[in-house]
Design goal:
The protein has helices at residues 4-10, 15-25, 30-37, 46-57, 64-84, 88-95, 97-109, 121-124, 159-176, 205-211, 225-230, 245-255; strands at 128-131, 134-141, 144-150, 184-189, 214-219, 262-268. It has a 6-stranded mixed beta sheet with strand order 1-2-3-4-6-5. 47% of the residues lie in helices and 14% in strands. It contains 12 helices and 6 strands.
Length: 269
């Protein structure tokens, strides 16, 4: 049996946050929280379970109680990984989303915290896995089974790395979920935005990633790219940072009337 400390070490959680969650673990009433926590293991009840859990946890500065509760859930998730024979590496790579999100909170707000509780039931309920540089989520699209591709903020999306991840996903789902058959990979991301062709140099990793996908939708007004590119979606255009060439180029493009938004594309599996 692994412990919360083992999980924090395995996902390389910061020492400061590890200390906080280990203290909060002592205060958790797992029996009282279990009716809400159990709902987070089923996609159909994620939202309901989260709302009930938030109410049960009460005041929760920077969402540390929620973070602790979810990391403790990871202990049960680990046991399910072992039952299926899935490796510790894939477990820790997948749950490292927690330490990544905590780090991103620091980058956005200047302090550690956790604001992605709406996302992480995917990993805890074994609906999403990190395989190499990319993450793959079991989903439905147009009534069909698909693997939804997500690009972690720390991913190195070279052509070689992405090809390796797609290969890993095929091997993984064939071995551990043989009953799950799918025809497509889909991706819904700012990185698929056709507008980036006017921003990035030919041969950029993002544009090369795009080339694999057939784009079928483009929401030009969706602002979520601000969060990923600038770490803060609340800043007016004039105040967006210009620390990287990507930030500078997108800022200039948008100020001149260009659109980034989010696009949806697919690849034949």
């Amino acid at each position: 049996m692994i412990s919360l400390k083992d999980i924090c070490e395995g996902i390389k959680m910061s020492e400061e946050v590890t200390g906080i969650v280990l203290e909060l673990e002592k205060q958790l009433d797992r029996k009282a929280l279990s009716p809400y926590v159990n709902k987070l293991y089923r996609r159909s009840s994620w939202e309901e379970g989260l709302e009930e859990l938030k109410k049960a946890l009460g005041e929760d500065k920077d969402n540390y109680k929620m973070l602790t509760c979810m990391l403790v859930m990871g202990i049960d998730t680990y046991q399910k990984y072992k039952e299926k024979g899935i490796s510790d590496k894939i477990f820790y790579d997948t749950l490292a989303c927690f330490s990544r999100f905590v780090k991103e909170h620091m980058e956005s707000y200047g302090r550690y915290g956790f604001d992605r509780e709406w996302w992480t039931p995917r990993e805890l309920s074994m609906e999403e896995f990190r395989l190499g540089e990319l993450e793959f989520e079991v989903e439905k699209w147009k009534g069909e089974n698909v693997l939804s591709v997500h690009i972690p903020s720390d991913a190195s999306i070279t052509g070689e790395n992405c090809a390796a991840s797609y290969d890993l996903s095929k091997e993984f789902f064939k071995k551990y979920y043989p009953e799950f058959t799918y025809r497509y990979y889909i991706c819904d991301s700012w990185m698929l935005s056709p507008g980036l062709k006017d921003v990035l140099p030919a041969g950029s990793r993002i544009l090369n990633f795009q080339k694999d996908y057939t784009i079928v939708e483009w929401d030009k007004e969706e602002p979520s790219y601000l969060k990923w590119v600038y770490k803060n979606s609340d800043l007016p255009i004039e105040e967006l940072p210009e620390d990287t060439s990507l930030q500078r180029n997108i800022k200039k493009y948008v100020k001149e009337g260009g659109k980034i938004g989010v696009a949806l594309g697919y690849i034949e599996a």
